[in-house]
Protein backbone atom coordinates (compact mmCIF):
# COMPACT_ATOMS: atom_id res chain seq x y z
CA UNK A 1 0.00 0.00 0.00
CA UNK A 2 1.23 3.47 -0.89
CA UNK A 3 1.55 6.18 1.77
CA UNK A 4 2.41 9.29 -0.23
CA UNK A 5 -1.10 10.55 -1.07
CA UNK A 6 -2.62 13.07 1.34
CA UNK A 7 -6.12 13.44 -0.14
CA UNK A 8 -7.56 15.44 -3.01
CA UNK A 9 -5.47 18.05 -4.80
CA UNK A 10 -8.00 19.50 -7.26
CA UNK A 11 -11.07 18.61 -9.30
CA UNK A 12 -11.23 19.70 -12.94
CA UNK A 13 -14.54 20.06 -14.77
CA UNK A 14 -15.90 21.53 -17.99
CA UNK A 15 -18.26 24.43 -18.54
CA UNK A 16 -20.04 26.20 -21.39
CA UNK A 17 -19.48 29.86 -20.48
CA UNK A 18 -16.41 31.31 -18.78
CA UNK A 19 -18.06 34.45 -17.37
CA UNK A 20 -20.95 32.51 -15.84
CA UNK A 21 -18.51 30.01 -14.37
CA UNK A 22 -16.35 32.75 -12.88
CA UNK A 23 -19.35 34.54 -11.39
CA UNK A 24 -20.70 31.35 -9.81
CA UNK A 25 -17.52 30.38 -8.03
CA UNK A 26 -16.27 33.80 -7.00
CA UNK A 27 -19.57 35.51 -6.17
CA UNK A 28 -22.12 32.78 -5.43
CA UNK A 29 -19.76 30.38 -3.61
CA UNK A 30 -17.30 33.05 -2.48
CA UNK A 31 -14.10 31.28 -3.55
CA UNK A 32 -11.03 33.08 -4.79
CA UNK A 33 -9.94 32.87 -8.40
CA UNK A 34 -6.32 31.93 -7.89
CA UNK A 35 -5.27 31.54 -11.52
CA UNK A 36 -6.45 32.69 -14.94
CA UNK A 37 -4.60 30.74 -17.59
CA UNK A 38 -5.39 28.59 -20.64
CA UNK A 39 -5.80 24.93 -21.53
CA UNK A 40 -2.37 23.51 -22.46
CA UNK A 41 -3.86 21.56 -25.38
CA UNK A 42 -6.43 24.17 -26.52
CA UNK A 43 -5.01 27.60 -25.69
CA UNK A 44 -8.10 29.36 -27.06
CA UNK A 45 -9.94 27.98 -23.98
CA UNK A 46 -9.44 29.24 -20.44
CA UNK A 47 -8.26 27.14 -17.54
CA UNK A 48 -9.70 28.80 -14.42
CA UNK A 49 -8.77 27.85 -10.85
CA UNK A 50 -10.80 28.68 -7.71
CA UNK A 51 -9.87 27.95 -4.09
CA UNK A 52 -8.66 29.45 -0.84
CA UNK A 53 -6.26 32.39 -0.54
CA UNK A 54 -3.26 30.59 -2.05
CA UNK A 55 -4.88 27.67 -3.86
CA UNK A 56 -3.93 25.13 -1.23
CA UNK A 57 -4.11 21.51 -2.36
CA UNK A 58 -7.51 20.15 -1.37
CA UNK A 59 -9.36 23.42 -2.01
CA UNK A 60 -9.05 24.00 -5.76
CA UNK A 61 -11.88 23.58 -8.26
CA UNK A 62 -10.71 24.12 -11.84
CA UNK A 63 -12.59 24.53 -15.12
CA UNK A 64 -12.18 24.35 -18.87
CA UNK A 65 -14.98 26.58 -20.24
CA UNK A 66 -15.55 25.49 -23.84
CA UNK A 67 -17.90 28.00 -25.57
CA UNK A 68 -21.21 26.44 -26.65
CA UNK A 69 -20.22 23.02 -25.33
CA UNK A 70 -23.28 20.75 -25.00
CA UNK A 71 -24.12 19.46 -21.54
CA UNK A 72 -22.77 16.15 -20.40
CA UNK A 73 -24.99 13.16 -19.68
CA UNK A 74 -24.82 11.85 -16.14
CA UNK A 75 -24.00 8.19 -15.67
CA UNK A 76 -21.42 5.77 -14.41
CA UNK A 77 -17.67 6.07 -14.85
CA UNK A 78 -17.46 9.62 -13.54
CA UNK A 79 -17.36 11.81 -10.46
CA UNK A 80 -21.02 12.58 -9.86
CA UNK A 81 -20.83 14.92 -6.86
CA UNK A 82 -18.09 17.23 -5.63
CA UNK A 83 -18.68 18.17 -2.00
CA UNK A 84 -17.28 21.16 -0.11
CA UNK A 85 -16.75 21.49 3.64
CA UNK A 86 -18.61 24.27 5.49
CA UNK A 87 -18.88 25.01 9.23
CA UNK A 88 -21.38 23.17 11.37
CA UNK A 89 -24.67 25.03 11.60
CA UNK A 90 -24.16 26.98 8.34
CA UNK A 91 -26.48 25.12 5.97
CA UNK A 92 -29.44 27.35 6.77
CA UNK A 93 -27.42 30.36 5.67
CA UNK A 94 -26.32 28.60 2.51
CA UNK A 95 -29.82 27.38 1.64
CA UNK A 96 -31.14 30.93 1.91
CA UNK A 97 -28.25 32.38 -0.06
CA UNK A 98 -28.41 29.87 -2.90
CA UNK A 99 -32.21 30.16 -3.10
CA UNK A 100 -31.96 33.93 -3.31
CA UNK A 101 -29.33 33.71 -6.05
CA UNK A 102 -31.43 31.33 -8.15
CA UNK A 103 -29.31 28.19 -7.76
CA UNK A 104 -31.20 25.06 -8.77
CA UNK A 105 -31.34 21.51 -7.44
CA UNK A 106 -31.36 22.46 -3.75
CA UNK A 107 -32.02 19.48 -1.53
CA UNK A 108 -31.22 18.82 2.13
CA UNK A 109 -30.06 15.36 3.06
CA UNK A 110 -27.90 13.44 5.50
CA UNK A 111 -25.16 10.97 4.63
CA UNK A 112 -22.85 9.07 6.99
CA UNK A 113 -24.28 11.14 9.84
CA UNK A 114 -23.39 14.46 8.19
CA UNK A 115 -25.87 17.14 7.15
CA UNK A 116 -25.52 18.25 3.54
CA UNK A 117 -27.10 20.56 1.00
CA UNK A 118 -27.04 19.31 -2.58
CA UNK A 119 -27.25 21.82 -5.44
CA UNK A 120 -26.48 22.17 -9.14
CA UNK A 121 -23.88 24.34 -10.81
CA UNK A 122 -24.60 26.50 -13.88
CA UNK A 123 -24.10 23.53 -16.23
CA UNK A 124 -25.94 21.00 -14.07
CA UNK A 125 -22.80 20.11 -12.15
CA UNK A 126 -23.42 17.97 -9.06
CA UNK A 127 -22.32 19.76 -5.88
CA UNK A 128 -22.93 19.53 -2.15
CA UNK A 129 -22.06 21.51 0.96
CA UNK A 130 -21.37 19.30 3.98
CA UNK A 131 -21.30 20.51 7.57
CA UNK A 132 -18.00 19.59 9.23
CA UNK A 133 -17.22 20.22 12.87
CA UNK A 134 -13.92 22.02 13.51
CA UNK A 135 -12.43 21.91 10.02
CA UNK A 136 -9.13 23.71 10.76
CA UNK A 137 -8.51 24.98 7.23
CA UNK A 138 -8.58 28.75 6.80
CA UNK A 139 -11.27 29.94 4.36
CA UNK A 140 -11.07 32.77 1.85
CA UNK A 141 -13.16 35.55 3.36
CA UNK A 142 -12.48 38.38 0.88
CA UNK A 143 -15.20 37.05 -1.40
CA UNK A 144 -18.01 38.51 0.71
CA UNK A 145 -18.57 35.60 3.13
CA UNK A 146 -17.55 35.56 6.78
CA UNK A 147 -15.58 32.75 8.33
CA UNK A 148 -18.77 31.55 10.03
CA UNK A 149 -20.06 30.31 6.66
CA UNK A 150 -17.24 30.28 4.08
CA UNK A 151 -16.13 27.11 2.30
CA UNK A 152 -13.03 25.49 3.81
CA UNK A 153 -12.13 23.33 0.82
CA UNK A 154 -13.19 19.96 -0.50
CA UNK A 155 -14.98 17.49 1.72
CA UNK A 156 -15.10 14.60 -0.77
CA UNK A 157 -15.88 13.41 -4.25
CA UNK A 158 -18.47 10.73 -5.03
CA UNK A 159 -17.78 8.44 -7.98
CA UNK A 160 -20.60 6.64 -9.78
CA UNK A 161 -19.56 3.14 -10.85
CA UNK A 162 -21.20 0.07 -12.31
CA UNK A 163 -19.00 -2.04 -10.01
CA UNK A 164 -16.93 -0.52 -7.24
CA UNK A 165 -14.64 -3.51 -6.68
CA UNK A 166 -11.59 -2.72 -8.80
CA UNK A 167 -11.73 1.03 -8.08
CA UNK A 168 -12.00 0.39 -4.35
CA UNK A 169 -9.00 -1.92 -4.54
CA UNK A 170 -7.03 0.74 -6.42
CA UNK A 171 -7.87 3.44 -3.86
CA UNK A 172 -6.87 1.13 -1.03
CA UNK A 173 -3.56 0.53 -2.80
CA UNK A 174 -3.21 4.32 -3.03
CA UNK A 175 -3.48 4.59 0.76
CA UNK A 176 -7.22 4.90 1.35
CA UNK A 177 -8.99 2.80 3.96
CA UNK A 178 -12.65 1.79 4.10
CA UNK A 179 -14.40 3.91 6.70
CA UNK A 180 -18.06 2.92 6.36
CA UNK A 181 -20.77 1.49 4.08
CA UNK A 182 -24.32 2.84 3.96
CA UNK A 183 -27.18 2.79 1.45
CA UNK A 184 -25.09 1.39 -1.38
CA UNK A 185 -22.21 3.83 -0.85
CA UNK A 186 -18.73 2.90 0.34
CA UNK A 187 -16.75 5.68 2.05
CA UNK A 188 -12.95 5.61 1.93
CA UNK A 189 -10.56 7.87 3.84
CA UNK A 190 -6.86 8.73 3.91
CA UNK A 191 -5.91 8.70 7.61
CA UNK A 192 -4.27 11.95 8.76
CA UNK A 193 -4.90 13.54 5.36
CA UNK A 194 -5.17 17.14 4.21
CA UNK A 195 -8.85 17.63 5.14
CA UNK A 196 -10.02 16.73 1.63
CA UNK A 197 -9.40 13.06 2.28
CA UNK A 198 -12.73 11.32 1.66
CA UNK A 199 -13.92 9.44 -1.43
CA UNK A 200 -17.39 7.91 -1.78
CA UNK A 201 -18.09 5.09 -4.23
CA UNK A 202 -21.68 4.70 -5.45
CA UNK A 203 -22.49 1.37 -7.10
CA UNK A 204 -25.12 1.82 -9.83
CA UNK A 205 -25.09 -1.30 -12.06
CA UNK A 206 -28.25 -0.37 -13.94
CA UNK A 207 -27.16 3.11 -15.03
CA UNK A 208 -25.74 3.90 -18.48
CA UNK A 209 -22.21 5.15 -18.89
CA UNK A 210 -21.73 8.92 -18.63
CA UNK A 211 -21.06 11.10 -21.67
CA UNK A 212 -18.79 14.05 -20.93
CA UNK A 213 -19.75 17.63 -21.67
CA UNK A 214 -20.41 20.88 -19.84
CA UNK A 215 -21.02 20.12 -16.18
CA UNK A 216 -18.95 16.92 -16.25
CA UNK A 217 -15.86 16.31 -14.14
CA UNK A 218 -12.92 15.79 -16.49
CA UNK A 219 -10.59 14.33 -13.86
CA UNK A 220 -9.91 14.20 -10.14
CA UNK A 221 -6.41 14.87 -8.81
CA UNK A 222 -4.80 13.48 -5.66
CA UNK A 223 -2.12 15.36 -3.72
CA UNK A 224 1.48 14.42 -3.00
CA UNK A 225 4.10 16.65 -1.42
CA UNK A 226 6.69 16.72 -4.18
CA UNK A 227 8.06 15.19 -7.39
CA UNK A 228 10.05 12.52 -5.56
CA UNK A 229 6.88 11.13 -3.95
CA UNK A 230 5.11 11.40 -7.30
CA UNK A 231 7.77 9.33 -9.08
CA UNK A 232 7.49 6.67 -6.38
CA UNK A 233 3.76 6.41 -7.05
CA UNK A 234 4.24 6.37 -10.82
CA UNK A 235 6.66 3.45 -10.60
CA UNK A 236 4.41 1.54 -8.20
CA UNK A 237 1.35 2.01 -10.42
CA UNK A 238 3.22 0.95 -13.54
CA UNK A 239 4.62 -2.07 -11.75
CA UNK A 240 1.03 -2.97 -10.89
CA UNK A 241 0.03 -2.79 -14.56
CA UNK A 242 -1.42 0.69 -14.95
CA UNK A 243 -0.58 2.80 -17.98
CA UNK A 244 0.61 6.09 -16.49
CA UNK A 245 1.64 9.19 -18.44
CA UNK A 246 5.10 10.67 -18.12
CA UNK A 247 5.38 13.55 -15.65
CA UNK A 248 3.88 16.71 -17.19
CA UNK A 249 4.78 20.22 -16.05
CA UNK A 250 1.52 22.12 -15.46
CA UNK A 251 3.36 25.30 -14.33
CA UNK A 252 1.80 25.26 -10.83
CA UNK A 253 2.23 21.53 -10.16
CA UNK A 254 3.60 18.44 -11.87
CA UNK A 255 1.05 15.87 -12.99
CA UNK A 256 0.72 12.24 -14.03
CA UNK A 257 -2.54 10.69 -15.30
CA UNK A 258 -4.05 7.23 -15.61
CA UNK A 259 -7.50 5.77 -16.29
CA UNK A 260 -9.10 3.75 -13.49
CA UNK A 261 -10.95 0.42 -13.89
CA UNK A 262 -14.27 2.21 -13.32
CA UNK A 263 -13.54 4.74 -16.08
CA UNK A 264 -12.67 7.81 -13.96
CA UNK A 265 -9.51 9.67 -14.99
CA UNK A 266 -7.12 10.06 -12.03
CA UNK A 267 -4.26 12.51 -11.69
CA UNK A 268 -1.49 12.59 -9.11
CA UNK A 269 -0.40 16.23 -8.62
CA UNK A 270 2.38 17.76 -6.54
CA UNK A 271 1.82 20.46 -3.94
CA UNK A 272 4.81 22.29 -5.42
CA UNK A 273 5.61 24.84 -6.81
CA UNK A 274 2.20 26.47 -6.15
CA UNK A 275 0.12 29.24 -7.67
CA UNK A 276 2.35 32.06 -6.42
CA UNK A 277 5.26 31.05 -8.66
CA UNK A 278 4.37 33.74 -11.21
CA UNK A 279 2.09 36.12 -9.25
CA UNK A 280 2.28 37.77 -5.88
CA UNK A 281 -0.19 36.22 -3.43
CA UNK A 282 -2.07 39.51 -3.13
CA UNK A 283 -2.82 39.46 -6.87
CA UNK A 284 -3.42 35.80 -7.65
CA UNK A 285 -5.80 35.19 -10.54
CA UNK A 286 -5.84 38.74 -11.82
CA UNK A 287 -3.58 38.64 -14.90
CA UNK A 288 -3.80 36.21 -17.81
CA UNK A 289 -0.89 33.79 -17.39
CA UNK A 290 0.23 31.74 -20.37
CA UNK A 291 2.32 28.56 -20.52
CA UNK A 292 5.72 29.14 -22.12
CA UNK A 293 4.75 27.43 -25.38
CA UNK A 294 1.73 29.72 -25.81
CA UNK A 295 3.24 33.09 -24.82
CA UNK A 296 3.66 34.09 -28.46
CA UNK A 297 -0.15 33.85 -28.81
CA UNK A 298 -0.87 36.53 -26.19
CA UNK A 299 -2.10 39.26 -28.60
CA UNK A 300 -4.43 36.78 -30.28
CA UNK A 301 -5.69 35.21 -27.06
CA UNK A 302 -6.29 38.52 -25.29
CA UNK A 303 -8.52 39.52 -28.17
CA UNK A 304 -10.28 36.15 -28.36
CA UNK A 305 -10.90 35.07 -24.76
CA UNK A 306 -14.14 36.24 -23.15
CA UNK A 307 -13.87 38.97 -20.51
CA UNK A 308 -14.61 37.33 -17.16
CA UNK A 309 -15.97 40.46 -15.51
CA UNK A 310 -18.95 42.16 -17.15
UniProtKB/TrEMBL annotation:
Domain of life: Bacteria
Keywords, comma-separated and alphabetical: Dioxygenase, Oxidoreductase, Plasmid
Pfam families according to UniProt: Glyoxalase
Stretches of the chain forming a coiled coil according to its record: none
UniProt keyword Zinc present: no
Record carries keyword Cell division: no
Domain VOC: 7-132, 153-271
InterPro entries: Extradiol_RC_dioxygenase, Glyas_Bleomycin-R_OHBP_Dase, Glyas_Fos-R_dOase_dom, VOC_core
GO molecular function: dioxygenase activity
PANTHER family associated with the record: RING-CLEAVING DIOXYGENASE MHQE-RELATED (PTHR36110:SF2)
Protein name listed in UniProt: Glyoxalase/bleomycin resistance protein/dioxygenase
Organism expressing this protein natively: Sinorhizobium medicae (strain WSM419)
Amino acid sequence: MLEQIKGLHHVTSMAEDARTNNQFFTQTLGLRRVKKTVNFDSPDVYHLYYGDETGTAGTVMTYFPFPEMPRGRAGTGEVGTTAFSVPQGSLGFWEGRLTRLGVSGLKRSESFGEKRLNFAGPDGDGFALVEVRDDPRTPWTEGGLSGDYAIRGFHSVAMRLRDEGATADLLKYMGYEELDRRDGVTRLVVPDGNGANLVDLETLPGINRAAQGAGSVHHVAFAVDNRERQLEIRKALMDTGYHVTPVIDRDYFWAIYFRTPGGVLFEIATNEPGFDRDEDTAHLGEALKLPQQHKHLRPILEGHLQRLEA
